[in-house]
Amino acid sequence: MCIDKQRKERSDNNPGFPSFEDISDWAAKFELYEDFLKAVFGTLFSEEHYKPMVEPTGFRKHIAVLQYIEKDEFFYTLTSIRQYSNASVITLSMDWDITTELYINKPNHFELHIEESYDCRMTNGGSSSGHAAYNYVVSRPLPDDISGIKLVFKEFSVPLKNDGTGNGIVFRLE
Fold first, then answer.
1. Distance between CA 58 and CA 170 in Å, rounded?
2. Which residues contact 135 (CB under 8 A, 6 or more apart)?
3. What's the pTM?
4. Domain ranges in the chain?
5. Are 138 and 120 within 8 A, CB to CB?
6. pLDDT digits (tens, 9 = 90+) for 13-56
7. pLDDT in tens, 126-173
8. Is CATH 2.60.40.1630 the classification given to domain 59-172?
């Protein structure tokens, strides 16, 4: 068994991050810069974000979802899922009242989780006054019959971090 696979199994695929004290000690001992070592361990910590991303090809059809959730003065919607031969694309839309200060300091990066057999990645998104939309590529493609699938959008304060806010939106597809 390769060493990297053993490391992943022993750590439950969580390599952790050494204490800054350990990094300082290693930097002095091996004559390296502390920031360099922090960058190396940071890269190991986020290995999954370097996995090759599937580019959707071979558009097949739209599947109507037409569901919404109101939570904390935000209105979240899923209108449809775009089906491709090698992936699915889901767009999460958010709307809010622009006359309030609600959105200014609110964390709003969401990561999509379905179940272990699906790889979900946010590919792009954008926002303007009172509206935001984010696209997620799901590979392998979702089945054409989406009933019973649960889409969990977990909220994070910033992308590519493990500091979930504990908030999330869950859509149960019908």
1. 28
2. 89, 90, 91, 122, 123, 124, 125
3. 0.72
4. 3-50, 59-172
5. yes
6. 556 677 888 888 988 998 988 888 888 877 766 666 667 788 99
7. 888 888 899 999 999 999 999 999 999 998 765 555 555 567 899 999
8. yes
